[in-house]
Write a structure and sequence with these properties.
The complex is a heterodimer of chains A (306) and B (309).
Chain A: E1 2-6, E2 17-21, E3 35-40, E4 47-52, E5 59-65, E6 72-74, E7 77-79, E8 84-89, H1 93-104, H2 112-115, H3 131-136, E9 141-146, E10 149-154, H4 156-176, H5 200-212, H6 218-227, H7 236-239, H8 277-283
Parallel strand pairs in A: 2-8
Antiparallel strand pairs in A: 1-2, 3-4, 4-5, 5-8, 6-7, 9-10
Helix pairs in contact in A: 4-5
Chain B: H1 4-8, E1 14-17, H2 22-26, E2 29-36, E3 45-53, H3 57-62, H4 73-85, E4 91-97, H5 99-107, H6 114-131, E5 136-142, H7 147-157, E6 162-166, H8 169-172, H9 174-192, H10 215-223, H11 240-249, H12 263-269, H13 283-287, H14 296-300, E7 303-305
Parallel strand pairs in B: 2-5, 5-6
Antiparallel strand pairs in B: 1-4, 2-3, 3-4
The chains are: A alpha+beta (306), B alpha/beta (309).
């Protein structure tokens, strides 16, 4: 199904190595070639590369496999850039959604052609010619039909349940592909004796949510997290104990503990109640002319100086 | 000497051997080891062993075998002819290490240096003689590296055999001289008639001695350098002569294990965090990109979004 395509270079000398389904370059039904277009990435709000399939009926996202120290030998040429491009089908609704949300704040029902407009990325209107676009708008908007024309208004509620379905389908796909979703590192070759323990469902949900968040705004991602009933992951920073280093400040230094209790009368030193026999016999020894032990450690008495 | 098996695939190592004389299986034998073509930047390195019964040592002397370096090419060819004719009591075996084998050994991830390669080849040939039933009692070797260490290594590997490692052994022991002649003749023939695996059209075979200091060799190396591939397999890429020329004239190629990039520098390039950053509480926050982190599904698979082709 997937074929390795070696594109002949256009004006530039560079070519790319692309893996794409045959349908991407299928020009039999349509006259126009597939085209790479720059569109607003819903997650980053910046330009990303997409591909519109023949006649703009299918949207594909373009991802690059990129590692250090890679080059291609293509035919009789060497290509410095060792990238491998993947062109994979994508739901155009993800790219349309930001425009719907933006105008949804106005709260009006509008024809979709009026909603999906972007000065920076004029190509965004081509998204509407994708077969799936108009057919799936009802997943995220309320619709009204007046005089044969359809008007739309963004609905967060519908969007959430749509995204939830997407998460569930992603979980199913992750399970089928045995994608490692747990925290920490797992070796792909490590075979567990026991089946995966509990809590796996949440791991899958969280992983799928993270994956989906690559296609929606941060705000929407947070809302989806709540909608899925997943608690915010506790940040490791908060769990950390406070730094031990004291901070310098102009405020007067105050003792962290109250030492005044040691001044009270009942804290006065009491003589030890009992002495051992050894201590007793030592106490009886004649100590005249002997220096106390402490005198060896104290600075010399200055009395001699006189 | 039939070199066709090496010429069929001159990119790898190849063993050639004479028939084992019957007398060598029954009588105590001595064996000499020597090598030819250690220094040149071009062509293979050939290891040779020659063996005969200890009782026939004098006969070997009568053949007037001498250090191959003191002989002309024709004299060597003639002597090899005589050795080959004396097949009733003299046997030989050769290991031809192609320049490609030398290059790939010395330049692989875990470096395998020329001395180790030499020792292992010599050991392999002695083992071959033993496996063929030659009754080895004495082994004479021209040294590679410190003689005492090499001698100890060989003695331990082959208990019961008296191993003598000497510098200049090829002029001291006739059996080593004989081995050196076999090795040298094989190398000369291979180099003279090198079958280039590459399509070089009318290749200019005037490459001189093949030693790095030979101006002819240098000129040939310059002429046949390809900016992308470097040299034909005939050249030992691990030789500094070849490397220096490629560094200055050929396209730069970066490898995963490039020497210059170690420690800090490599870590920085790979976007790794310094170990120190894990000990201070605040560093984590500062380091993180203010824009969102790509999900690990993509980072683990080295997948990135593009904004331009």
């Amino acid at each position: 199904m997937a074929t390795k395509k070696k594109r002949t270079p256009n004006a530039e000398s560079d070519s790319w190595v692309v893996i794409a389904a045959d349908s991407v370059i299928d020009t039999q039904k349509h006259d126009s070639d597939p085209a790479f277009v720059r569109l607003r990435n819903p997650a980053t709000d910046e330009a990303s590369l997409y591909l519109l399939g023949s006649g703009d009926v299918q949207l594909y996202e373009v991802k690059a496999f990129q590692e250090d120290f890679r080059s291609w030998f293509i035919g009789q040429a060497v290509q410095r850039d060792g990238k491998l491009l993947f062109v994979t089908p994508m739901d155009p609704l993800y790219l349309i959604l930001p425009y719907l949300i933006k105008s949804g704040k106005e709260g009006k029902f509008q024809p979709v052609e009026q909603l999906v407009v972007d000065e920076e990325f004029p190509a965004c209107s081509r998204l509407l010619s994708c077969t799936r676009s108009l057919a799936s708008l009802h997943h995220v908007t309320e619709e009204k039909e007046v005089g044969g024309r359809k008007f739309h208004r963004y609905s967060e509620e519908k969007t959430m349940s749509w995204l939830k379905k997407k998460v569930e389908r992603t979980v199913a796909a992750l399970r089928m592909r045995n994608v490692c979703v747990g925290e920490g590192v797992t070796s792909a070759t490590y075979v567990r004796v026991k089946p995966e323990s509990d809590g796996r469902e949440e791991d899958f949900l969280r992983y799928a949510h993270g994956l989906l968040s690559e296609y929606i705004s941060e705000q929407l991602s947070k809302a989806l997290l709540t909608h899925l009933g997943l608690p915010e992951p506790s940040s490791p920073k908060e769990a950390e104990p406070p730094s031990k280093k004291r901070k310098l400040s102009d405020k007067p230094v105050e003792a962290g503990e109250d030492y005044t209790k040691f001044n009270s009368a009942d804290f006065a030193r009491k003589p030890p109640k009992k002495m051992t026999t050894a201590q007793k016999s030592l106490a009886k020894v004649d100590k005249t002319g002997m220096k106390p032990m402490s005198s060896f450690f104290s600075p010399k008495v200055k009395a001699e100086k006189k | 000497m039939d070199l066709s098996s090496f010429e069929a695939d001159n990119s790898s190592s190849c063993r050639l051997a004479s028939h084992i004389p019957e007398v060598c299986r029954t009588e105590d034998c001595c064996l000499g080891i020597d090598e030819a073509g250690r220094g040149p930047v071009l062509g293979p390195m050939v290891y040779g062993i020659c063996f005969c019964p200890v009782s026939k040592k004098e006969d070997l002397k009568d053949l007037k075998v001498a250090d191959s370096k003191t002989l002309t090419e024709t004299e060597r060819e003639n002597l090899f002819q005589k050795l080959d004719e004396a097949k009733s009591y003299i046997g030989w075996a050769l290991q031809i290490l192609s320049p490609n084998t030398i290059s790939t050994s010395m330049l692989q991830r875990t470096k395998y240096n020329l001395n180790a390669l030499s020792h292992d080849t010599a050991i392999g040939l002695v083992q071959y003689a033993l496996d063929s039933g030659v009754q080895l009692k004495e082994v004479f070797v021209d040294t590679v590296g410190p003689a005492e260490k090499y001698e100890e290594k060989l003695s331990q590997l082959f208990p019961g055999i008296e191993v003598t490692v000497r510098p200049k052994a090829d002029s001291l022991f006739p059996v080593v001289s004989a081995a050196s002649i076999c090795a040298k003749v094989a190398r000369d023939r291979v180099v003279k008639d090198w079958k280039f695996a590459e399509d070089l059209r009318e290749v200019d075979t005037d490459y001189g001695s093949g030693y790095p200091n030979d101006p002819k060799t240098k000129a040939w190396l310059l002429k046949y350098m390809d900016p992308v591939f470097g040299y034909p397999q005939f050249v030992r890429f691990s030789w500094s002569t070849a490397q220096t020329l490629m560094d200055s004239k050929a396209a730069t190629v970066h490898w995963d294990d490039d020497d210059e990039e170690t420690g800090e520098k490599a870590a920085q390039r790979q976007n790794n965090r310094s170990m120190l950053s894990y000990f201070s509480a605040s560093a984590g926050g500062k380091d993180h990109n203010p824009t969102r982190k790509t999900h690990r599904f993509f980072t683990e698979r080295r997948l990135k979004s593009l904004n331009t082709l």
